[in-house]
Design brief:
The structure holds two protein chains of two kinds.
Chain A (H helix, E strand, L loop, with lengths): L1 H31 L6 H19 L1 H28 L3 H23 L15 E5 L2 E4 H23 L1 H11 L1 H6 L4 H27 L5 H16 L4 H20 L4 H7 L14 H5 L2 H4 L3 H12 L11
Antiparallel strand pairs in A: 1-2
Helix pairs in contact in A: 1-5, 1-8, 1-9, 1-10, 2-3, 2-4, 2-8, 2-9, 3-4, 3-8, 5-6, 9-10, 9-14
Chain B lengths: L1 H23 L1 E8 L6 H19 L10 E8 L4 H13 L4 E4 L3 H17 L6 E4 L16 E3 L4 H14 L5 E7 L2 H17 L4 E8 L8 H9 L4 E4 L4 H12 L6 E3 L7 H5 L7 E5 L9 H13 L9 H16 L5 H8 L3 E3 L5 E4 L6 E2 L2 E7 L13 E8 L19
Parallel strand pairs in B: 1-2, 1-3, 3-4, 4-5, 6-7, 6-8, 8-9, 9-10
Antiparallel strand pairs in B: 10-14, 11-12, 12-13, 14-15
The chains are: A mainly alpha, B alpha/beta.
Chain lengths: ~325, ~425
């Protein structure tokens, strides 16, 4: 019972982290209709910048400055890169972001090398917040939860309650009309792209110390972010939140409990074959949930695409 | 017309002779390991150590066989067996006769099988496989062959030494085993289970599991299970980003006991563990770094630091590999006839600068050497890793570890020609 509570907290942390990444990506998608393959690379840049800044000015300045730099870089990429490529259609845009992802990874390796960076949790937060029957919850995780929730609420408020948010939403659906009303739509696009990448930067800053800061960090997280926004529904902020939490909890629980495939198969009435060593389904019978935990989201995505192609909260028909 | 043919044949012949003479001046070694992707740092650091070993130990001292130099050529296999076979073919096509590889036993299995086939079919371009770090025992047991030599201790030998130390520690009652889901992770788990049962029947294995290799983002759920199980010690064969992620997570989430590892040092890991891993993380390895094995090794390490100020010598067996290879080439009197070189490597005894004598067992091509259990600390560290002040310090040494360990290898030697 206690372990369930602990897992709920761990899953929440994973989910919210994923949300910060997918929120930006899903906003950018609904705006430009293009998946930004380089999104996870901005997450990596956030972590590396914050590490570099934290060496000189401490963790907190890193948290403040690094996302700003990443956001400005993102806006620059939109203004001077994507906007030019945009006129040639979606495929060149996809290829552009894909190339950008490779470029950023090489650049990071060029500047910082291929080793793990010693980017660690600040001393102020390096203690155990509380413990549930021997399982300590680090204070840093609580901090991560609060930061993510604050960002979500802030984002939701800006998008739904302010004038800026209304113009953005209008520009997302009817750019021509909004332009005709005298708003600078390209500027809005650039802003949204900048904010989206800055969000990825924040995720990098706070995830770097716990998940490790190394050149492969974008690669490890890259594909799961796309899965998240497909499950949540492309372009939906609420969808991104629900899907992120769902993935966080599914993977956490699958890893925490050793559910064996043989138990499930026995449970539905299939008897374990006696000659298991030679059986062609041996791998299927011996699989356990921690082994496949990280591919469960992909299975979920396939199911969603079959039964609800526009995602959990998606509006546009696929 | 006849004359012309003759002339053509002569010039062609002289071209071939010229080409082989040019080739003979430079002994090339193909390094096939990950230079990109999640394990890039492990691979790149290995490459640097190989390049330096060749430069410092061979080329600066006048080379081998009357002045032939050695050269290490890096091939990126992205830790994929499929990619490795392509790179192997490229290396063979470039006329390279010596292959070194170490990261991932999955790759090593693919390579050793391919090399065995290649050597049987192409007696003129045979290659040797010098394995410096892939430690799945099967490579020197049921899947052994004449072309494969292992310079690291295999997982069973390491576990034998590790369980000797664990068996002496009476505080340890429950042990948790966790590793990456592939041949090596499974070998570690199997060895730990059987050896603990034999040496300390009272120790209970409270957890034994595998996780996907290189794909886990967050190790927290695994760490929770370790803490929940009430284990006194953790054993893991993890390496690269998987080692750091697992170790950090286990410590952060409240585990108090020692973590026995195979590879938790260097490549940024030592700096990232820092204070949190002090006196907690132990690793089993060959080669003594603190205190260092010999004056010669101290000079070499200092020269290495001059070239790579941010580098570590975390795989001292790389220097043994190059040292033993050059000795074998010297004794064989040729670098082109790999059968002769391999025959010299078999049964070779070599005094390592990192301490102790090494012995290449002829029956399975497994190197027998001293094993050390070291602890991650910042006390009494002469050579730290990652410029962090932290490093590994020897706690205990097992001389000529498992030198009589059984092997199921039935070595098939090529016919002498």
């Amino acid at each position: 019972m206690d372990l369930i509570l602990v897992n709920l907290i761990d899953g929440l942390v994973t989910g919210l982290l994923l949300f910060m990444l997918s929120a930006g990506l899903t906003l950018i998608f609904s705006m430009m209709g293009v998946l930004n393959f380089a999104h996870a690379s901005f997450y990596m840049l956030g972590a590396y910048f914050a590490y570099q800044i934290s060496l000189a000015l401490g963790f907190w300045m890193g948290l403040l400055i690094a996302p700003l730099i990443v956001g400005v870089m993102g806006a620059g990429v939109e203004r001077y890169g994507l906007r030019r490529v945009h006129q040639y259609g979606h495929v060149p845009e996809l290829i552009f972001t894909f190339g950008l992802a490779l470029l950023i990874e090489e650049l990071v390796q060029f500047i910082w090398g291929k080793n793990q960076m010693a980017y660690s949790v600040p001393d102020v937060l390096n203690f155990t917040a509380f413990a549930i029957s021997g399982n300590s919850i680090p204070a840093y995780k609580i901090f991560m939860i609060f930061i993510s929730i604050a960002i979500f609420i802030g984002l939701l408020y800006v998008l739904t309650k302010t004038r800026v948010g209304m113009i953005i939403q209008a520009a997302l659906s009817y750019p021509r009309t909004v332009e005709a009303l005298g708003h600078n739509v390209p500027l809005i696009f650039m802003g949204v792209f900048g904010v989206g990448t800055a969000l990825a930067g924040v995720a990098g800053v706070i995830a770097g110390p716990v998940l490790g800061t190394f050149p492969g960090m974008a690669f490890v997280l890259g594909s799961i972010v796309f899965v998240t926004i497909v499950i949540g529904g492309l372009g939906s902020l609420w969808g991104a939140l629900v899907a992120s939490l769902l993935i966080g909890w599914i993977t956490t629980f699958a890893k925490s409990y050793n559910i064996a495939m043989s138990d499930i198969l026995n449970g539905i009435g299939i008897v374990t074959p006696t000659d298991l060593e030679d059986n062609i389904f041996r791998d299927l019978w011996t699989v356990t949930s921690p082994q496949i935990a990280d591919i469960l989201p992909y299975i979920l995505m396939v199911l969603i695409l079959i039964f609800r192609p526009y995602g959990l909260f998606g509006k546009r028909a696929a | 017309m006849k004359k012309l043919t003759k002339m053509g044949a002569v010039s062609a012949l002289s071209l071939i002779v010229g080409a082989s003479a040019a080739f003979a001046e430079n002994i090339k070694i193909a390094f096939i390991d990950p230079l990109s992707g999640p394990f890039a740092s492990t691979g790149t650091n290995g490459l640097h150590q190989f390049e330096f070993a060749v430069e410092y130990m061979i080329n600066d001292k006048g080379g081998v066989l009357d002045g032939q130099t050695m050269e290490v050529v890096g091939f990126d296999n992205k830790t994929s067996p499929k990619e490795s076979l392509i790179q192997l073919q490229v290396a063979i096509d470039q006329g390279i006769r010596y292959i070194v590889q170490g990261n991932s036993s999955g790759v090593a299995h693919a390579l050793t099988e391919a090399i065995d086939k290649h050597n049987r079919r192409n007696p003129d371009s045979r290659v040797l496989f010098l394995n410096y770090a892939a430690v799945d025992p099967a490579l020197t047991n049921e899947n052994c062959n004449f072309w494969h030599f292992r310079f690291d201790a295999n997982a069973d030998i390491k576990m034998d030494a590790l369980t000797d130390v664990i068996a002496e520690n009476q505080d340890i009652k429950d042990v948790y085993i966790i590793g990456q889901d592939y041949s090596f992770g499974k070998a570690v788990s199997a060895a730990a289970n059987s050896m603990l049962k034999e040496k300390r029947p009272d120790i209970e294995v409270v957890g034994d599991e595998l996780h996907p290799i290189g794909k886990v983002k967050d190790f927290t759920p695994y760490a929770r299970k370790v803490v929940q199980s009430g284990a006194d010690a953790v054993i893991t064969g993890n390496w690269g980003a998987d080692m750091l992620g697992l170790g950090k997570s286990i410590i952060e989430n409240g585990f108090e006991g020692p973590i026995y590892t195979y590879y938790a040092a260097g490549s940024g890991m030592t700096a990232a563990f820092g204070e949190s891993g002090k006196d907690r993380i132990r690793l089993i390895a060959q080669g003594a770094i603190n205190p260092i094995g010999s004056e010669e090794a101290r000079d070499l390490y200092n020269a290495f630091l001059k070239k790579y100020p941010e580098g570590n010598i975390d795989q001292s067996r790389i220097f043994n590999t190059i040292g033993m290879l050059s000795k074998a080439i010297e004794q064989a009197g040729t670098a082109d006839d790999v059968v002769a070189v391999a025959s010299q490597l078999e049964g070779m005894e070599y005094d390592s600068m990192w301490g102790g004598t090494l012995y290449m067992r002829p029956q399975d091509h497994q190197l027998i050497q001293d094993m050390h259990i070291a602890v991650h600390t910042n006390d009494d560290i002469e050579f730290d890793y990652d410029q962090s002040g932290f490093g590994v310090k020897n706690e205990s040494t097992i001389e000529m570890a498992s030198k009589d360990i059984a092997t199921s290898c039935e070595m098939q030697r090529p016919d002498p020609s």
